[in-house]
Amino acid sequence: TDRGAAVRSFVKTGVREAVVAVSICNQGREKFLVQGVDKYGDRIVVERRIKSDSSGASSYTLKNQNGKVISHAKKDLAMILDYFNIQVDNPCVVMSQEQTKEFLRTSDPKKRYKFFLRATLLEQMRTDLRDVRQRLETAQATIERRTDMLPDMEEAFRVRETAWKEAQEMVNLQDRRKDLQNMLAWAYVEDRETRIERADGEIAKQQLNVEKLRVEIDIQKTEIDHLHNQQEEKMREIKAQHDQGRAFVAQLKEKKRDFELCRRDARRIMKEIGDVEADIHNKETNLAKLDKQIVETQKQVLQESWFVVVAVAVAV
Questions:
Q1: What's the pLDDT score for residue 104?
Q2: What is the pLDDT of residue 23?
Q3: What is the phi-psi region of residue 21: left when phi exceeds 0, alpha when psi lies from -120 to 50, beta otherwise?
């Protein structure tokens, strides 16, 4: 309207801010959509909030038909104005009173021509064409510069592509190596577990054999004790007969014969005792060897179990 030095002069005195709201009809097949989505509905409300302080700041708010705020960006407002072809700067669309007075008061051809350019948007089109030409020249220079750089860029791309392929192959090899390491670790674990199971079975078998040998040794010790008792009984009988031989000289020969028989029995018993003791000694030796073998097997099982734990930790 050209009636104030700044926008804040339109705010009523004593009021902190003013709000100007304009509703735009948004119906029919040509309604405005945001990326194919109808966010505004049948009516677009444009609000401009003007502050009365020294800054004189103003902001735009776009709302839908229900009053929900959709955007505060001025570029969205410009997009809506461009979509509906609303030319707020075109004097044929909006002309303030001052502009009307000035247009009627002056008959300068230059001003009328400028008015014509503004009304027909030729001035805007010339400005746009000038900007487009400048952008085109800049783009052409950029294309020429990039065209000169294209061989170097292609060479650099080939180098980087080769390096990327090599890196990708390296990554694939590393993944394959990791898979093989995992397979090797689990194969090692499986082999060790099989060996441990076999060793446990062998240990159980050896322990069973040891128990059997111990039972046999106990039986043979019982037999040895029985033989010792028999020997002592025979020795007592021999002594008794020997004592009786002194008293009964007449029965010396018979007693001597009995004595010889008893002595032969004693020798036989002593021989049997010696054989039994030798057998016990051999079995005790075998038992000691079995105990040593069991200890070595247990050590081997513990060592293999430690290897299994290490292998699993490496695989993880």
A1: 66
A2: 93
A3: beta
